[in-house]
């Protein structure tokens, strides 16, 4: 797995997703449930806009002083007995992790949920070297068994229903138990427990790193991250370079926003703080700790007009409210970062060559703007991508042709006049009862879901000329 999850063309992916009734139902139900829970928690907390402004200020302050906080973090981690590696590229990151694993003669790695390790393709790199990688997050474990990429940054298997999950467990692990979440969870827990006990290395992400103390914060609902960080003798934490908070005071605000925005809860089930490897008088913890800080294009984003996207705390709230995501799911985006945040960050990390379609997978309804806990102006950044692609000559070919045709007609008054008269008459024939014909050709995908005003066959110019002659204003 890496940033790009599919080589299927964007339009073909969309059609596949729109035809997947099970996925669409599962995603819609999850959006409704999580959205309702989030609203309850927002109302309970009160002064939500003030909290958002404070979270935005914290994230902006970190980005403004990122070099200083990275230095402080690295210094503190080293003082605590850990090792720090700055990875400029995803290849640098996977190479270092592989070197650590090979130095330990590791045969098995257990892994907690982490988007940045998906981004850099860590699993594939380790597996290519003959090292077994076991996902221990419940949803990620199921997806790994099914060789299926995640479709949400918080709820990776949001697109699957329990019948599908039972089928996966039966076909891969021989599960013959009932189709209840409790029974299937217990079965998976028993399987993963053996992996925890036999693993050589535990790998986690990092929700926030505290520069003041060199601590790493893991926010989970299942407790698997604690097993990954306490049972294996070596722990490797991988983080995006922007995921820093100055002190625990700022982390308190960010976790308050994260839990409510991600799953509609006051607090997640487990909030784990790790400060270096195990000391002599500690009962548990890793003997060795490595912190891999990943750039992979973030420093370029920091100095660009898209800087605000680095505020993101990976809560997934934008996906939980997005109407486009509701219909095409996460797999429609072809990136491990789907939804509105994916439409912004995927082209920045993976380039327009891979993700030029994503900024157009958006209706610009701005629902994502209204729920983002750190006030990222996602819709404006999506528009900025569209503008950048136009300036680079990369918009869809149909749009380029339409723009050239419009420009030519608009610069020739006679042709424009004829076109307006013909267009008005054609529209009066074409649109019946507010609907265009089903076989509307290239316009079908746009007109099929829209009510259109009935045209009367008269152009505005002729109407204006007639009424002006009559003395009407």
Overview of the molecule:
The protein has 473 residues and is α/β, with parallel strands linked by helices. The chain has two domains: 10-300, NagB/RpiA/CoA transferase-like (Rossmann fold); 397-469, no CATH class. It has 23 helices and ten strands. The protein has helices at residues 10-18, 21-45, 48-64, 66-79, 90-103, 115-120, 122-128, 138-145, 162-173, 181-198, 224-230, 248-263, 298-302, 317-321, 323-328, 339-350, 352-355, 367-371, 378-391, 397-410, 413-430, 444-447, 460-469, and strands spanning 83-87, 108-111, 132-135, 201-204, 208-210, 215-220, 234-240, 244-245, 270-274, 288-294. The strands form two sheets. A six-stranded parallel beta sheet has the order 1-10-7-4-2-3, sandwiched between helices. Strands 8-5-6-9 form a four-stranded mixed beta sheet. Helix 3 packs across helix 12 (248-263). The chain is elongated. GO terms for molecular function: 4 iron, 4 sulfur cluster binding; metal ion binding.
Features:
Rossmann fold; single chain; about 55% helix; six-stranded parallel beta sheet; four-stranded mixed beta sheet; elongated; 23 helices; alpha/beta; about 475 residues
């Amino acid at each position: 797995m890496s940033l790009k999850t599919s080589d299927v063309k964007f339009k073909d992916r969309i059609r596949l997703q729109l035809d997947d009734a099970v996925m669409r139902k599962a995603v819609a139900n999850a959006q409704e449930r999580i959205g309702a829970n989030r609203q309850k928690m927002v109302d309970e907390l009160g002064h939500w806009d003030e909290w958002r402004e404070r979270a935005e200020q914290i994230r902006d302050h970190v980005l403004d002083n990122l070099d200083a906080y990275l230095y402080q973090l690295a210094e503190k981690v080293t003082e605590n007995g850990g090792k720090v590696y700055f990875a400029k590229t995803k290849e640098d990151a996977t190479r270092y992790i592989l070197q650590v694993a090979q130095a330990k003669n590791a045969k098995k790695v257990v892994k907690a949920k982490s988007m940045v390790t998906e981004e850099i393709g860590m699993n594939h790199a380790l597996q290519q070297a003959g090292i077994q990688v076991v996902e221990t997050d419940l949803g990620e474990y199921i997806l790994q068994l099914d060789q299926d990429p995640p479709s949400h940054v918080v709820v990776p298997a949001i697109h699957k229903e329990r019948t599908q999950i039972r089928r996966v467990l039966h076909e891969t692990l021989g599960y013959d138990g009932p189709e209840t979440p409790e029974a299937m969870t217990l079965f998976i827990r028993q399987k993963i427990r053996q992996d925890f006990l036999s693993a050589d290395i535990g790998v986690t992400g990092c929700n926030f790193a505290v520069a003041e103390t060199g601590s790493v914060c893991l926010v989970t609902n299942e407790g698997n991250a604690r097993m990954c960080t306490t049972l294996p003798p070596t722990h490797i934490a991988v983080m995006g370079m922007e995921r820093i908070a100055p002190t625990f005071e700022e982390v308190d605000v960010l976790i308050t926003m994260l839990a409510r925005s991600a799953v509609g809860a006051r607090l997640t089930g487990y909030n784990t703080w790790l400060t270096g490897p195990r000391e002599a008088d500690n009962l548990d913890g890793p003997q060795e700790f490595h912190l891999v800080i990943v750039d992979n294009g973030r420093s370029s984003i920091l100095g660009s007009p898209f800087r605000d996207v680095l505020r993101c705390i990976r809560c997934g709230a934008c996906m939980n409210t997005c109407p486009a995501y509701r219909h095409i799911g996460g797999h429609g985006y072809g990136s491990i970062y789907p939804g509105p945040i994916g439409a912004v960050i995927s082209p920045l990390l993976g380039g327009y060559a891979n993700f030029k379609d994503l900024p157009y997978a958006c209706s610009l309804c701005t629902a994502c703007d209204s729920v983002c806990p750190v006030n990222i102006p996602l819709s404006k950044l999506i528009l900025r991508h569209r503008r950048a692609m136009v300036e680079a000559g990369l918009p869809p070919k149909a749009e380029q042709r339409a723009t050239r045709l419009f420009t030519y007609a608009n610069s020739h008054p006679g042709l424009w006049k004829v076109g307006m008269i013909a267009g008005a008459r054609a529209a009066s024939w074409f649109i019946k009862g507010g609907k265009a014909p089903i076989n509307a050709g290239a316009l079908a995908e746009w007109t099929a879901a829209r009510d259109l005003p009935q045209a009367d066959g008269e152009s505005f110019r002729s109407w204006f000329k007639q009424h002006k002659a009559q003395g009407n204003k």
